[in-house]
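Cross-check.
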Amino acid sequence: MTTSVTGPEAALSTALPAHARPAPAIDTDRVADLIAQLLVELGEDPSRDGLIGTPGRVASWWQAFLSPDRAAVDTCFTESQLSGQLVIVGGMNVWSLCEHHMLPMSLQVAAGYVPNGEVLGLSKFGRIARCFGGRLQVQERFTLQVFDYLTELIGREDVVVRVRGTHLCMSMRGVRMDAAVTTTLQAGGRFESDPVLSQQFLTLTAAQ
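Predicted model, tokenized:
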């Protein structure tokens, strides 16, 4: 068995297929008005120096965060000589929002699969992670969604996804544990039935 390990491509020039996630309709003027009302309710003056323009900037951020690039691209490339190779894409960091407290969570993602006559474009891994991160989420669901989408793309369940998350809802509120890390793992196919393959993945991603 040979092993290839890579980080995500720096430039992402194309994006997930449109059906990966429907783009929500965001009324940025309405959101800005609501943010201004929130500031008032928190005892602030939206018209004071420092807050002028803040509601509009917050609304623009929500629009960008919830709106992925929707250009459709080919995702797999024929490589008829490839089989039995473990491919891992690690070092992917995406931001998402905890839907329970609407606070950020930083998700470190690594994904692996075993090609069988074709390979998945490397930048596609990062695009998938960003797509499912750009919404109100929980880490457990995010991990499963990335796994399910990858299995759909390659047509098999020989996929594994590991996510390590740091959650501001744990570090800023509640127990306030800055060093707490949540790890989730979703594995299928050979990664469930072959302990050697599974251990290789865990070993190679341990430092990521």
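The chain is about 35% helix and 25% strand. Strands lie at 3-6, 76-83, 86-98, 104-113, 116-120, 136-137, 159-167, 182-187. Passed to J.P. for a second look.
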